[in-house]
Amino acid sequence: MLFLNSLKRTSSEEEIRWAWFRYDKPLLLAAVRFLAHLVNQKVVGETVAIELLHILLGELSGDTVEIAVAFVRECGAKLREESPRVFDMVFDIFRRILQEGGLVFD
């Protein structure tokens, strides 16, 4: 079972990397949603989710924020349970983005 979990995690991470470098937004959204479901089912820990949000919100653009919002919509409740301080920080970033309003959407 442990091998299967690591295989799922590795394949989803590779899919996210592939979509990120190809700028394939639909594939990236699908991979991020899949990873969110893995977080919800406790196949992948919340650390992976936090790292992904850190990467997405580190480079602010319309697409990265849209993908981060989709990710938080899918596994936000689980993140709120597991690490509420990080969840609050993510929402502070979202709030700041909304207040500044300087994003460019492609």
UniProtKB/TrEMBL annotation:
<dbReference type="GO" id="GO:0071013">
    <property type="term" value="C:catalytic step 2 spliceosome"/>
</dbReference>
<dbReference type="GO" id="GO:0003723">
    <property type="term" value="F:RNA binding"/>
</dbReference>
<dbReference type="GO" id="GO:0000398">
    <property type="term" value="P:mRNA splicing, via spliceosome"/>
</dbReference>
<dbReference type="InterPro" id="IPR050781">
    <property type="entry name" value="CWC22_splicing_factor"/>
</dbReference>
<dbReference type="InterPro" id="IPR016024">
    <property type="entry name" value="ARM-type_fold"/>
</dbReference>
<protein>
    <recommendedName>
        <fullName>MIF4G domain-containing protein</fullName>
    </recommendedName>
</protein>
